[in-house]
Design brief:
This protein is an alpha+beta fold and about 375 residues long. The chain has helices spanning about 5-35, 40-50, 70-80, 85-100, 105-115, 235-270, 280-310, 315-340, 350-360, 370-385, and strands at about 120-125, 140-145, 150-160, 165-170, 185-190, 195-200, 210-220, 270-275, 275. Helices cover about 55% and strands about 15% of the residues. Helix 6 runs antiparallel to helix 7. The longest helix has about 35 residues, at about 235-270. The termini are far apart.
């Protein structure tokens, strides 16, 4: 068997394991956990056993060594069942991806094996109360003090903030330098004295996963935790991670759009009005046709973007298009699914209302879709000068 065939077979077996896990350990419990907004401890334990916290970490550091394209398929599958748990591994894997791609070899050897097993779990700490998309406007500041840095500031909307133990933390190390991005640096910040979780943030959807505000008050961190070992590279490191994050969010969009389609197709054959199943009414048939087209188009865009990430190419154009289209498809399909269900779609007895609440996050997270459009247009012109 060729190396390519062996890799494909290995990844197929992983996907089969994920499918069994979702059907046995997630689907029967997702609705109650989501409605109660309960952190899924047992599900997280199974994810650790399956190696999902290390799925894209190279095998030499203890991970599964999966390609980003296979990771995207995992996320699509998870999101079609319960999107929240995709976030538990996604934020963690963005941090892992950053260390893999931009960290020193010492940092890779120190952190990646523990990331892979889930012994150290966490995420990405970029956003602050007064800045969202404009990461150059962050105020959290790290001041050098011998072989340590002292950090002060606040981060908000941090996934895994309560249950995680380490975060890729973006800070300012130079407040005056221009351009501003050269004054940012990224650290792997483990919880300890001076690092506190101030509150859990309540959300309309995406429940079960903890989103929190993190406060740093004279928090001391070893200089050895500066990713790459050089100041001023924080924005580059963050962007490296966000490409994977946007691929993840795009794959979530496919999962939500696909789940909404499946629920609509099923219900449209069960529900009858005026003496026939509602899918036979033209108004419903037109909705179903649009929904399935959006799912297939979204999946193809995600596959195209994932292939570019696999090759290690610059792919903000491809990932941006996938994220934009797939997440808008998720929002639109979730709404259409609710309308097809009528009053039942508004009931908490059906998963439709959860899809409807979860989907809007996708057009905001990992860079708003408005920002994606700007990036796409900019790259389009760069690639087609006259």
């Amino acid at each position: 068997m060729s190396a390519t065939a062996e890799r494909d077979e290995y990844e197929r077996l992983v996907l089969d394991s994920v499918d069994r896990f979702l059907e046995k350990d997630v689907r029967p419990y997702a609705m109650k956990l989501e409605h109660d907004d309960t952190y899924p401890e047992d599900i997280v334990a199974r994810m650790k056993e399956l190696g999902l916290f290390g799925c894209i970490i190279p095998q030499e550091y203890g991970g599964l060594g999966l390609r980003p394209s296979t990771y995207a398929k995992i996320i699509e599958r998870i999101s079609a069942v319960w999107m929240s748990i995709s976030g538990i591994i996604n934020s963690h894997l963005i941090m892992s991806f950053i260390v893999t791609k931009t960290g020193t070899e010492e940092q890779r050897k120190r952190f990646l094996p523990k990331f892979a097993t889930g012994e150290i779990r966490g995420g990405l700490a970029l956003t602050e109360p007064d800045c969202g998309t404009d990461l150059q406007a962050i105020r959290t500041f790290a001041k050098k003090d011998g072989d340590h840095y002292v950090i002060n500031g606040t981060k908000t909307w941090i996934s895994n903030g309560i249950h995680g133990s380490a975060f890729a933390l973006l800070v300012k190390t130079d407040k005056d330098i221009e351009p501003r991005h050269k004054g940012t640096s990224l650290f792997i910040a483990e919880k300890g004295p001076g690092f506190t979780v101030s509150k859990k943030l309540e959300k309309i959807g995406y429940k079960g996963i903890d989103s929190a505000e993190l406060v740093f008050d004279d928090y001391r961190i070893p200089a050895a935790n500066l990713v790459g070992g050089v100041e001023g590279r924080g924005m580059t490191c963050a962007i490296t991670g966000l490409e994977l994050g946007r691929l993840n969010v795009a794959a979530r969009g496919v999962g939500i759009a696909s789940a909404a389609l499946d629920e609509a197709v099923k219900y449209s054959q069960q529900r009858k009005t005026f003496g026939k199943p509602i899918h036979q009414h033209q108004a419903i048939a037109l909705k179903l046709a649009d929904m399935v087209t959006k799912v297939h188009a979204s999946r193809l865009l995600v596959e195209h973007a994932a292939a570019a990430v696999d090759r290690g190419e610059r792919c903000d154009f491809e990932v941006g298009m996938a994220k934009l289209f797939a997440t808008e498809a998720a929002v639109e399909n979730a709404l259409e699914c609710m309308r097809i269900h009528g009053g039942y779609g508004y009931s908490k007895e059906f998963i439709v209302e959860r899809l409807y609440r979860d989907a809007p996050l996708l057009v905001i997270g990992e860079g708003t879709n408005e920002i994606q459009r700007i990036v796409i247009a900019k790259r389009l012109i760069e690639n087609n000068p006259i």
